[in-house]
Amino acid sequence: MIDITRRDFFKLTGAAAVGLLFGRTVEAASKPSAVRVQQTDIDFRSARIDKNIVRIRNGAGDLMYVIEGKNKVALIDTGLGIGDLKGYVEKISNKPIVVLITHGHVDHASGTAQFDDIYMNKKDNALFREHTAMGNRQGYTGACNPEWAKTLTDANYLPGDDPDRFKDLKEGMSFDLGGVHLDIFDLPGHTHGMTAILIRENRALISGDGANMFTFLWSGETLGLTSYEQSIRHIKKVTEGKFDKMYCSHGGGDLTIDYFDRMLEDIAIIKAGKDDAVDFEFMGQKSKIAFAIDPAHNRLDGGIGNIVYDPKRINE
Ligand SMILES: [Zn+2]
Ligand SMILES: [Zn+2]
Fold first, then answer.
1. How many A from CA of 42 to the centre of ligand 1?
2. Nearest ligand, CA 63
3. Cα of 70 to ligand 1 centre, how many Å?
4. Domain region containing 180
C-alpha cells in the first residue's frame, strides 16, 4: 500500500479512467490538439509493422491487425463497427478475408456485420450480445473520443450481428493463410473467451487485451486473479520459444517479449499484498490498480504494464 498523500494524488478521476481504458492520456481526452482534430476526419489509420502485417487504429485508439498470406488475409478484431472497415482492409489486400475476434468486448467485436467468415470463442457469445448493442457502442465511442463521436450519425454505425453465425475459436486450431499460419491459444482472464493468436512464421504473438499495458480483470466477465495467473502460466508454457514479438490491442500495441514473466511477477506482488493497490472506480465499480502511476500512466516504480483487479477476487 502507498501512503495517503500519494494515494490521493493518484486517485483516478472519471476522465483518467476513460484515458486508461482507451489508451489515451487525460490531456488528450480533454484538450483536442491538431492531431486529434485531424483524426476526427477519418475512421481508420494504419502502419505496416512487418512485411505481411498491418496494424489498424480506429478513432478510439483500438487496434486491429491484418495478416496476409499467399491465399488469404486474416483480420484480427473489427473495432466499434464505425466506418467501412471491409473497404479499408480490401485496400490493403484483395484476398479473401477470414475474421478472428479476440474477445467479445465492444471495442473489438462490433464490426463483424460486414464479413462472412468469422471466428470467436463461443464462451464470449453472451458478452458479445450485451457489449455490441448499439447504445453501448455509442456510449463507449462518446466516452472515448467525444469529438469523433460528434461527427457520427446513426448511419455511420454498422448494423449489429448475431454471434450464433460465427464459428467457434479455441486452442489447438490453426489457420493456413498460404505460407503463413495462425495458431490459436486460449488466454482466459480479461474475458472467459479471450484468445491469443500466434503468427507462426512471423514469430509474433497477439495477446489482445488478454495481456496488455493495463490488463483489466475486475468486472463480471473477467476471471479472478489466481485463475488468470494459471492462464498466463499455461500460455507461457505452450508458446515458449515460438515468438519474439508481442502485440496487444490498445496503446502503442507493442509489448516486451518477457511480458508474461513481468505479469507473473506483478501477480505475485499483488498476492503478497505488496502492491500499491491504488483505488480505481469506473462506472460505479470499485477496484484497484496494482501499481501507482503518474498522470501520463507511467508506473512510478519504473515497471512496465499494470493490472486492474478486484481485491475480493485475488484467490478466486
Ligand atoms: Zn477487452
Ligand atoms: Zn479493449
1. 23
2. 2
3. 30
4. 27-213+222-274
